[in-house]
Design goal:
By secondary structure, the chain is of the alpha/beta class. The protein has 11 helices and 10 strands. An 8-stranded mixed beta barrel has the order 1-2-4-5-6-7-8-9, surrounded by 4 helices. Strand 8, helix 10 and strand 9 form a beta-alpha-beta unit. Helix 1 crosses helix 2 and helix 3 runs parallel beside helix 4. The longest helix has 22 residues. It is globular, with a radius of gyration of 19 Å. Bound molecules: ligand C2E and magnesium ion (3 copies).
């Protein structure tokens, strides 16, 4: 299966390499034109304020359903879309869809609903990115402070000197920047020093074993203290159990995201969720 691609052991090297190459080829072939065939959609996963349990926003996550390949997970197709260049169009689609949707949710439920969108390295090499973000915010009448862009170290690793100036332009607009998958990279700390982040998302791998791994708890505590000292908000990713949630609340983690609250769901399902949560105010 696709998860084994790149993790071959010598004994079945050839057969598996072949399989991976074929899968890759099929994805490359199918991703071409998939946007025009309406195969992509944007799902949303809620972010919850851990101190009061209220929904404060959501992360937009791209979904691809292809007639030949079925549901292809983003962990598989995003990297390929990066290489083919399709990510530029896909990224625009996600931003447009999610801001359009957010404008509706603002009107209907919650004026300060925060939408988070993932950006990948190639999008940062698009000289029109900053203008596109600004235009799309304005077209949908969404305030910049309600948009958060999640990037991983990969964006910063690209090392181009204009990354810093792009990040500065984005934050000067009032858009927030989040460092995604924090703790999995090589030099996350030096990036926090250099770039204007507002939010840190602790990677799911630290949350998984909160109950049993003392080291993970120590690291989580340290990340939260450090973040708060730097005036950064902390989101914990991948919260699946009540126990994990309680621990994170105890150590003052600001926000939580994970299957415990909700899986990523369609815009329609998200609207229903907001409806049942906010009907009291209507
Ligand atoms: P990410 O940005 O770190 O997103 C979080 C991933 O964790 C999502 O996977 C989400 O479904 C999953 N997740 C959330 N809560 C839980 C949980 O409690 N347990 C477990 N096991 N998983 C949980 P997803 O949607 O498959 O996306 C994977 C990655 O693909 C994302 O990681 C992001 O890096 C990338 N991606 C997704 N959509 C986009 C997009 O629109 N643009 C870009 N550039 N990348 C995207
Ligand atoms: Mg993310
Ligand atoms: Mg993440
Ligand atoms: Mg990730």
């Amino acid at each position: 299966d696709a998860k084994n691609c790149g993790r071959n052991t010598f004994s079945y090297y050839t057969a598996q390499m072949n399989q991976c190459a074929q899968r890759r080829l099929a994805i490359e072939e199918q991703i071409h034109g998939a946007l025009n065939r309406n195969e992509f959609s944007v799902f949303y996963q809620v972010k919850t304020n851990l101190s009061n349990g209220k929904i404060m926003g959501a992360e937009a996550l791209l979904r691809w359903n292809n007639p030949a390949l079925g549901n292809v997970p983003p962990d598989e197709f995003i990297a390929i879309a990066e290489q083919t260049g399709n990510i530029i169009q896909l990224g625009k689609f996600v931003l447009e869809q999610s801001l359009k949707q957010t404008a509706l949710w603002h009107k209907e439920y919650q004026q300060d609903f925060q939408i988070a969108v993932n950006l990948s390295p190639r999008q940062f090499r698009d000289p029109q990115l900053v203008q596109f973000i600004d235009d799309t915010l304005k077209a949908n009448n969404v305030h910049a402070s309600n948009l958060e862009l999640e990037i991983t170290e990969g964006v910063l690793l690209s090392g181009y000197n204009y990354v810093e100036s792009m990040l500065n332009s984005i934050t000067q607009m009032g858009v927030k920047m989040a460092m995604d998958d924090f703790g999995t990279g090589y030099s996350s700390l030096s990036y926090l020093r250099t770039y204007p982040f507002d939010v840190i998302k602790i990677d799911r791998s630290f949350i998984n074993e909160i109950a049993t791994a003392e080291k993970d708890r120590a690291l989580i505590n340290a990340i939260i203290s450090m973040s708060h000292a730097l005036n950064l908000k902390v989101v914990a990713e991948g919260i699946e159990t009540e126990e994990q949630c309680q621990y994170l609340r105890k150590v003052n983690c600001d926000l939580g995201q994970g299957y415990l609250f909700s899986k990523p769901i369609s815009a329609q399902a998200m609207t229903k969720l907001l409806d049942s949560t906010f009907q009291i105010n209507k």
